[in-house]
Specification:
This protein has 451 residues and is of the alpha+beta class. It has helices spanning 2-25, 31-38, 87-92, 157-171, 175-187, 192-201, 383-390, 392-397, 417-424, and strands at 43-48, 51-56, 69-72, 82-84, 96-99, 101-104, 108-117, 123-125, 131-136, 144-145, 150-155, 207-211, 216-221, 228-229, 236-239, 243-251, 263-267, 275-287, 293-301, 312-318, 324-329, 334-336, 339-347, 350-355, 357-362, 365-370, 377-381. The strands form 7 sheets. Strands 7-16-19-18-17-20 form a 6-stranded antiparallel beta barrel. Strands 4-24-23-22 form a 4-stranded antiparallel β-sheet. A hairpin with a 2-residue loop joins strand 23 and strand 24.
Length: 451
Amino acid sequence: MNKRLLLGAAFLATIVVGFLAGRGFAPGPGDGASQQAGAEPEILYWVAPMDPNYRRDEPGKSPMGMDLVPVYADDVDGQPGVVSIDPTVVSNLGVRTARVQVGPLPRVIETVGYVGYDEDTLRHVHTRVEGWIEVLSTSAVGDTIEAGQLLFELYSPTLVNAQQEYLAALSSNNASLRTASRERLVALGVSDTDISRLESERTVEQRLRVFADNSGVVAELGVREGIYVTPATDILAIAEIDRVWVIAEVFERQAAQVSGGQHAEVAFDHLPGQSWHGVVDHVYPELDPVTRTLRVRLRFDNPGVVLRPNMFARVTIRGDGTGDVLHVPREAIVRGGRGDRVVVALGDGRFRAQPVTVGVESGNRVAILDGLGSSDRIVVSGQFLIDSESNIESAFGRMGPDGDSGRMDHGGHEMGDDAESDHGDHGDNGDHDMSDHSDMDHSGHDMDATR
């Protein structure tokens, strides 16, 4: 009897406890809605299941045809590559952020150049015989030369003999000989004026006088009085100065953006407030092997000779604009051997290194082809300090398939168990103890506000 009473009491107690527990866990009025709202965290973006670097602002398909998966705000802190920095430290670093912009991006190339002679006007002076320069009318590069001005006088035994042969031919009745002798003088560089004088005066000139064919300045001078010259000797070169070239140097990554006919604007430091407007006259077919830049030629008239060869110029070349693209300030790009990246600000002192694919550069803006969304906010000032403090390179290493690269020291080297035990053998010096990482951020650097 007693046993039956005990079983009945236990059964009754079980029912009472279950009823009370059901009432305690049952949702009250409005509790179901609040729980449903709390079960839907904010979705930041969608990523490809097989490639976390492929990010989009809305659902879709990955390049492999797989559905994109959402990334929630609560899950960001657990992702590799996300680091947290104390807000005080962020303020001390002077971090500034900006939102990614969407819109057309004009193709503007800002570069430098230098003034040069218009090589179409450059004239080199050579002799056609060997001899000696006995009189030289110019003595320095840059001297002004007028058309018809005497350049130098040349003594050449070959010319003296050729004149004597022509005089002998004139005294003969052989017309063929006279013609051959005259043609030889012309071939040796004797002008028609000198030949006419020789025919009328019948006297041999010991020196051949050479005159300038065009006006300009002496661009090159390779001789002095008394020097022996041959036809291969560069005696001098004359270039006009009322027209000049401006040779601009374009970076290799911008080479595809420049073409002939594009508008260009040139400014010079010695003429503030003034600018020259022209077009791209020629794009050279090869890059400079030393500077790795593409040379672009511009032509300008030079009245008053205000532009002089080798002057420094600031050149702006404007091309056709692009369509609507994502673009960020150029200063936000962190360039490295593994590719380009930006530092994305996630809010509340959290940052993440994001690899990006850059497009055209226009002034201080750079187009982003892949890696960012229109709603992202990036770091535009102080990102290099964050990059070094957070050891983003190590974060990239932790983004591999295994998701584990071991504990990293300040240089990104693995600090396994052996390394930890080695640090413990330094003796009583507690400064070398690396066993406590409780106050360290993801990079292994102390980000405390007292730093």
